[in-house]
Structure formats: structure tokens, C-alpha cells
Write a structure and sequence with these properties.
GO molecular function: glycerol kinase activity
Number of strands: 23
Family: Belongs to the FGGY kinase family.
Keywords: ATP-binding, Kinase, Nucleotide-binding, Transferase
Helix content: 25-40%
Distance between the termini: 68 Å
Oligomer: single chain
Protein name: ATP:glycerol 3-phosphotransferase
Pfam family, one: FGGY_C
Amino acid sequence: MSAEKNIIIALDEGTTNAKAIALDAAGNVVAKFSQPLSIQTPREGWVEQSGSLLINASVQVLAQAIEAVGAERVAALAISNQRETAIGWYRSSGQPLGAAISWQCSRTAEFCDQLRRDQQEAKIKAVTGLPIAPLFSGAKMRWLLESVPNGFELAAQGEICLGTIDSWLLWNLTGGTAFCCDYSNASRTQLFNLHSGEWDNTMLDIFQIPRAALPEVRPSCGKFGVTQGLAQIPDGIPIMAMIGDSHAALFGHALGEAGCVKATYGTGSSVMAPVASAQADIHALATTIAWHDGEQIIYGLEGNISHTGDAVAWMADSTGLSELPEAELNQALSDLPASVESTLGVYFVPALTGLGAPRWDDSARGVICGLSRGVKRAHLIRAALESITYQIADVIAAMRQHKDFSLNALMVDGGPTRNDWLMQYQADLLGCPVMRSDLAELSAVGAALLARKAHDHLSTDALKQLLYVHASFQPDMARHARLQKRWREWQRAVERTVHKF
């Protein structure tokens, strides 16, 4: 590689935005572009996006990044993508069967209920690591085939392609010459065998998906194809990495180092730990493939929490705090919890639409308990923020059932992590360092690091010098011991959410 050809451009195709960033050989972001994406909800519970618009926005931001740095400097492209969203298209024309069905969509809930009634959940969980849920791609792919004339027959003949968004992007970027997905995305379909690393015949039968319609599965790190046939992007740029966005963030934090567990704090939260084996018998959690780096598979143990940042937003709204301008609101969310020594015994369990991991109870509803005359807004805001840390701790407690799990540091990202009080409370509760990344494009960076590894033939260790610096919050171990009592009291409050009146 010449000294000038040293830029990796990473596309992060998310649900609400397509973003492209350009990173130089030292891992510095030298350019970035973003394009908003629209979401359609044609019926209650249905969430979808135009496959054509996903491509157009992605090509636009990639073209902008390439132009900004100069095509002659671009060594490779990388892709991180929204997970579980499924799309189908006709192989001959490349035209979509219809809209891409979003990961948020629940149109397959009835089919999933039937699978449970047929007592298929234990079998599916053992093979794929995933519980039955409308979230995952297999049921969405089945729906797509049902939605078009002769869908199953055409798919069996190889005339229909079914894929996750990484495969759809790759197909279009390569002019239809490459039909592949990576291990991380394949493992989110509920059609992939964690243990064999292949599409599973039993799962294909259960979901009625012909193998001929599915992409070739390749390591997340390696050459997938080259750009071809796009007016805005030069031909011949290699695509050297593809990976699901949450997995990419885990890689971007610490390259999958054992004991470095990732928590993304947003409306909800995703907690993911790198593990060495495909142990899939922890009912409360999903086991998935974090990535295949070209040398080995790294598995991921994941728990998804429904209401974390959303819990604070609800409490801020309910107490009138949300009427403040954004800057003042953010300052208040940091100052108010620190202004009181405790919640005065108040606990808020934000089961606003049910409980996610590790309890998974859709019928549970939120509870505020322990109210007394002295409780003020500061105590309630503090209770909402504390609820985030307790939920993260609950998931990590479930993770300890995995024989490979360890916790040396919690690597965090997302908007709520800007609250220093919250991060320190999380560190003290867990009794381990909390390491915060302030980089908004962490998923893109993770994909770019994988592309750099493949393109420059680097070891994973060699990538460490390219990692971004994290802010560190060290635990107060005396306070850690005291907070265990509060955590137990929180767990008793959770039991009240499932009480049926």
C-alpha cells in the first residue's frame, strides 16, 4: 500500500441515519457525512423502510466522503449496519420485493406465537442462541416470501435473494456481483447454527426459507467484493469489512478483549460481552456471533433493556423538568441527583411497556415505590437515573452464568453516558471501572478497524494503537459495598411490577 492510499471509509447504515466517516492510517476521523432516513408505519405494529432510499442515502454519504479525501487515497470501504432488518429482491433485476422490514416491526408476532405453541423455542434457542421474537430476521424473510406471487417457489429456484442490510448494501455497491453477508448478521437471522457456523437445515425448514435464497456467509473481516457500476463512486474500491452495528461498537471499544463488556445507553440499552464459546442455555440472554475476524469466531452474550434513557425522559417529563432548554435540562440531570444523598427510599422500575432482559415480561408495568412526604423532584430524578444502573447490573448478573464471562471494565457509549454522575454511580455499583467513549461514530470506527486489519494484514493486537482514548470512572469500593443493599431493594421493587391487581 502506498503512503498516500491510506484512508478507510466506513459506512454506518442505521435506522434513522446513514453516516460515512473517513479514517486515516492513524485512526483519526478526517471527514464525516450524514443523511437522515425515513421510517414508515403503514399499519399498527408495522415498521418498514424503502430499500431504494437506504441505498441512495448510503451511496450519497460514501460519495461525499470519497470526494472529500480524494478517491486516489481510499484504500477500502467498511460497512456497519442496523441489525435484523430484512429485505428481499429479485436476482435478475435487483428490484426489492417490497419495503425492508425493520428490526422494530412486529408484523410476524402471530407466527412467532405459533412457534411457541408448537414448542419450538427450546430447539431454536439451542441452535441459534436466540429466543423466539418478531425482532429476528427469519420470520420477516418468511413474511416477504408470502407477500409476493410464487415467492417460495422463486426463492427455491434462486430467483429471489433474501438478506440482512449488509448483503443488500454489498449487492448494490458491487453491481450485483457479490451476494454475501457476514457472520454477525447471519447470527441475527435465527437461521444460522452457532455451533457449525452454517445455515441450519432444521431452522430453514421451520421458517420455510430456501437455502438458495440466502447469501454466502463470510468472515466479518476480509474482501467481500469491489465497487462497480455506480455513477457517484469509482469502480474497484475493495469492501473489506461488514458487521452489525452493535457488534462493531464492541470491537471499536476494545477489540473484543476478554472482560471488556459493552453497554450502549440510549432510549434502551444493549449490553454485550465477548465470550469464547457458543453456550446458549442462559434463558434471559441471547448468544450471538460478535464477529469473525478472519482468524477466529468471537461470540457475544447480549441482553437488551427496553427503558433506560427513556426512563429518565419520562421522569423529566412527568416532573416538568423537560420544559427546560436542552442545555439546561442536561445540566439539571447531572446536578439534581448529586444534590441529594439518596432517593429517600424511592425506587423507580420503568417497565413502561414491559420488562426486557433479564426478566422478559411484556405484561409488567412500571412502579414508583417508597414515596414519602419529604420526596422532591431531585429524589425522583435520581431514582430514574439509578434505575439505569440497576438494570445494567441485573443483565451483568445474568451474564455471570456463562462459563467464559468476566468483567474487568464496562465500556460505555451513547447520549446518557455524558452524565458524569450516572457513570460514577454505575462504576460504584458494579465495583469495576466504567470507560466512556465520547465518539458518536463508534460503530463505524469498529467496522473501519476490521477493514484496516484485513487490508493491511494486521494482527488484532496491532490495532490497539488505533483505539480512541476513553474517559475513566474508577469505583469507590466502600460505596460499592453500601450500594449492594440498594440494588437488592431495587430487585424487590421489580417484583411489584408483575403483581396483578
